[in-house]
Amino acid sequence: MAELVSTMTGVTHDELIGGTAITPMTANVTIAKLAAATELKRGTLLGVVTTSGKYAIVDSTVSTGEQVASVVLARDVVVGTASDVVATVYTRGLFNRSKLIVKQSADNATKHEAELRGVGIYLTDVH
Description:
This protein is mostly beta strands. It is 4% helix and 31% strand. Strands 1, 3, 4, 5, 7 and 8 form a 6-stranded mixed beta sheet that branches. The chain has a two-stranded antiparallel sheet with strand order 2-6. The termini are far apart.
């Protein structure tokens, strides 16, 4: 009889994806270069800078477009100071709100839930 259960090694689950009820979709976007090189982590919320059309980490303290969350970073990416970076993002799906990352410590994913829902990104709690 075939083995019904096996152990996998080297695979980790970061709980970013909150479920499969909404199929995640991805796209590639341009993230604007930064004043200091920074590694943006998977799960970072990004918004579009109105003047450039490029993406930046969500920051609710500004009013240049990136205060509105619109995508979720799919993989870690280093954004340098010399040039913009193309990165893969989730444009739709169901995500664990506690695993999403924003720029300001006083901010959180729940504060952006309505705007995310408007673009097909839904939040849940995975324990």
